[in-house]
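# nightly structure sweep
# worker-07 picked up a monomer target from the shared queue
# config: single-sequence mode, recycle default, output format = structure tokens
# input follows
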Amino acid sequence: MGNILKVLAEENKLCTGCGACMNVCTINAITMQSDQEGFAYPRVQEEKCINCGLCERHCPVLHPEYNNADRPECYAMMAQDEERRTSSSGGFVPVVARWVLRKGGSVYGAAWDEDWNVHHIEIANEAELYRIKGSKYLQGSVEQSYQLVKRKLEEGKWVLFTGLPCQVAGLYSVLGGG
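# output follows
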């Protein structure tokens, strides 16, 4: 089953590197590895793969969902001046993140590590919000964050996940909806 993923990744024509396949693989046969240009793509360890097909069934590229509303609700917001100076997109993420954290929830977002790589991390308190503020303009690794988000939601916790459109599609796929 991993053959289609292999073709998507090797040809680099369709795969977005969202990591959904890696997050749903129950035997950890899929890893995300960077190509010569630094973009991460799935690599299937054929010797481990049991051909269950979960990776392909959860690939948002192979099974896109288009659930746009004909008349979507529209909301607008703008944070206070100081928040906007240290944030992107009008300060939306930290404002919503504080609300989620005050409800006992978790926030997932892209953060730099000590080697200037971008990874999705969980923020559990307001003091850590600075780590996910601002745009990163690099493909970040979601690692196991989709699985962690799913567990939190199953526990009835509030969760805010911020990421690229392909990462949000990957998360929705792992959660079982689109």
